[in-house]
Write a structure and sequence with these properties.
There is one protein chain. The termini are far apart. The longest helix has 27 residues. It is built from 14 helices and eleven strands. Helices cover 46% and strands 20% of the residues. The protein is α/β, with parallel strands linked by helices and 307 residues long. 34% of the residues are buried. Strands 3, 4, 5, 6, 9, 10 and 11 form a seven-stranded mixed sheet that branches. Strands 1-2 form a two-stranded antiparallel ribbon. Strands 7-8 form a two-stranded parallel sheet.
Length: 307
């Protein structure tokens, strides 16, 4: 790619079109406090710096966000809408931060969590954020892998609590169902399956090379059991995100958790393909070593998963 093309690509990136987190947090503070000065104090900057940040965000978005007057600062109609969107971005960033902190190798960790990839990617950060709110002094470490790896970590006393997606509970572990999930067949919109008028049959799906997770993953286990066997994978990958990216690129069809593909389906980057006669539902489970019911922070995290 040429230097000019690279500059054009950068100019069109989200980083240049979407305000940064500091600006979004300031906007939320203005909405909550009704005063630019009070919002500036809350986020730890001067009022002139806060005014400059709001003006910069307005120029970036091309809309007025805040009406300023001697009586305070009031959101415009557009500002109220942008604030609602900003709140979702900041909440997602907080969940991201909770998950990223847990991934660090912390010697003082008092709760060691192991989770299969789909749960680690799409559910656990929110649970960890809620745990942090209730127990801010609890250090958490997170190990992510497939369901087989989670069982191994628990049985080797390298984790206190685990989360898996498979059909069965590994030997030596107790469990409780915390949620239910559904696997769906997806393709890029240009794939021939996206133009089918009839659902796939189980036999067609079983005979088709798919983009799949590796052996030992809960997704692979459920699909294999439902179809009574699978064709050799088209591509085999070790994370849900990598499988999804390959499917979006048009490399081939895949089977993924509906937790993972909501945005892609809504934006038509992926298409859901109906299948006749195949039950692709599964339980999501919390697991722990037999006879060692979770206590302390592990028990509290377990309770949060059922909220």
């Amino acid at each position: 790619m040429s230097e000019v093309d690279g500059q054009r690509s950068a100019a069109g990136s989200l980083a240049h079109r979407v305000p940064d987190l500091a600006a979004l947090e300031l906007l939320l503070a203005v909405a909550r406090l009704g005063s630019l000065g009070a919002a500036a104090r809350e986020v730890g900057i001067t009022q002139p710096a806060a005014s400059s940040r709001i003006r910069s965000m307005e120029r970036q978005l091309g809309v007025a966000l805040v009406d300023r007057s001697p009586r305070g600062s009031r959101l415009t109609d557009a500002g109220a809408l942008v604030t609602d969107w900003a709140r979702r971005v900041v909440e997602a960033a907080e969940a991201f931060d909770a998950g990223a902190q847990a991934l660090r190798d912390r010697r003082d960790s008092r709760l060691r969590v192991a989770a299969s990839m789909t749960i680690a990617e799409y559910l656990l950060p929110g649970w960890l954020l809620a745990l942090r709110a209730g127990r801010p002094d609890t250090a958490v470490s997170l190990l992510a892998g497939n369901s087989a790896k989670v069982a191994e970590l628990l049985l080797q006393d390298e984790a206190d609590l685990g989360f898996v997606e498979g059909l069965t509970v590994p030997t030596g572990l107790d469990s409780t169902v915390i949620a239910h999930d559904r696997l769906i067949v997806v393709t890029a919109p240009g794939h021939p399956w996206a133009r089918r008028r009839r659902p796939l049959t189980a036999q067609e799906l079983a005979a088709t090379p798919l983009i799949l997770r590796e052996r030992g993953s809960g997704t692979r286990q459920v699909l294999d059991a439902a179809l009574g066997g699978l064709a050799r994978p088209l591509i085999e990958l070790s994370s849900t995100t990598a499988v999804k990216a390959s499917a979006v690129s048009g490399a081939g069809p895949s089977v993924l958790s509906e937790l993972a593909v909501g945005e892609e389906l809504a934006m038509r980057r992926l298409v859901s393909i109906p299948v006749d006669g195949v039950a692709l539902r599964r339980d999501l489970r919390a697991v722990w070593p037999t006879g060692h019911r979770p206590t302390g922070p592990a028990r509290e995290l377990l309770s949060l998963t059922r909220g």
